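For reproducibility, we list the full input for the pyridoxal-5'-phosphate complex.
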Amino acid sequence: MYDFDKIIDRRGKNSAKWDQRFIGKGEKELLPFWVADTDFPAPSAVQKALEECVRHNIYGYALPPEGCEQAAADWQKRRHGFEVQPEWVTFTGGVDAALATAVCAYTRQGDGVLIQTPNYTPFFETVKNNGRKVLENPLKLVNGRYVPDFEDFAHKAKEAKLWMFCNPQNPTGRCFTKEELERFAEICLENHVIMVSDEIHGDIVYEGNTHVPLASLSPKIRARTLTCTSPSKTFSVAGLGASAVMIADEELRRQFMEEKEKRCLNTNVFGLTAMKAAYTEGDEYADRLVSYLQRNRDFALDYIKREIPQIHAMTPEATFLLWLDCGELGIRGEELEKFFIKAGVRLSMGDAYGDRSRKFVRFNFGCSRMLLKQGLERIARAVEREKA
Ligand SMILES: Cc1ncc(COP(=O)(O)O)c(C=O)c1O
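The corresponding predicted structure, in tokenized form, follows.
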């Protein structure tokens, strides 16, 4: 029923990942492992719901489909044990829009916003572009695994109004534990820091790990937390731009809604129709997807260890992203980017995520195993050539 091995040509379908028409000549043949969407078709329930919209063929101003809030709330309860009331749910046209809205709703020009590094690039951009100050809290690399630096976090929290958190984390693949989350939240509560938790990758978590929604930890934490979720990564609907934001506290919700109004952030009928269908009927698809991705992850980790030992991969506990330390190749920054382009693959460069060493790259393994193998083989051959 779900054949994730099947290769579907996405070229010529206006895919940011595959249609590299803005990138320059001579790069058409690159295999893309960069932009964080998957190459898999959406579940048939999503397709069916969208087909119904298209058959109707009137796309006027729309309300969220009836029961969409409930579907988003039920998904959280069923999949992550997070009790959400439907009235806490509001929608935005994607998580990035929700993050920008939160920054503007809860902080003023010059205020500090705490962000772990490395991190998803728009976190930094949203803060800077709105005239707020990024307070970086670098994760520490201990025995090949990123861990929080709570001492630094507690120190910087004194200056912060907001903490923008990514869990599970893009690009490192960390799925933070309950104990880690509690410690982070405790520091935020002590310092009156509002918590915005981007949990867009929360459905894609591998064996031995559990996604714990930050706001599910306690009523006190929930009252100071916004949870940003979306079906976009799990169900291959990122291009439809729809996110469900959960805000339990009435005053925080009011402030968010006010800012959302100011920004004219309407959602579209396709995004929310797909969301409702995915959250209502997508359990089996999500289970199978995670199991396929886990095998992709293990395949990639094993291949890199055996065939490309000069590159060190962090083991992602969640997400379809591999964070690769290429330090041993002895090339960094632009040279590293050129190296991978010459190898025939397009990856995301680490410096965009705040990697100052410029030796990391991010590799998206949300694709068929065949394509993944081809990409890794291209890299292995390029490393061999570099050695020779
Ligand atoms: C952590 C994280 N947040 C947000 C987004 C973007 O979400 P949206 O497309 O819903 O704006 C991404 C996409 O890669 C992401 O990785």
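The chain has a mean pLDDT of 95. The longest strand covers residues 160-166. Both points were considered when choosing residues for closer inspection.
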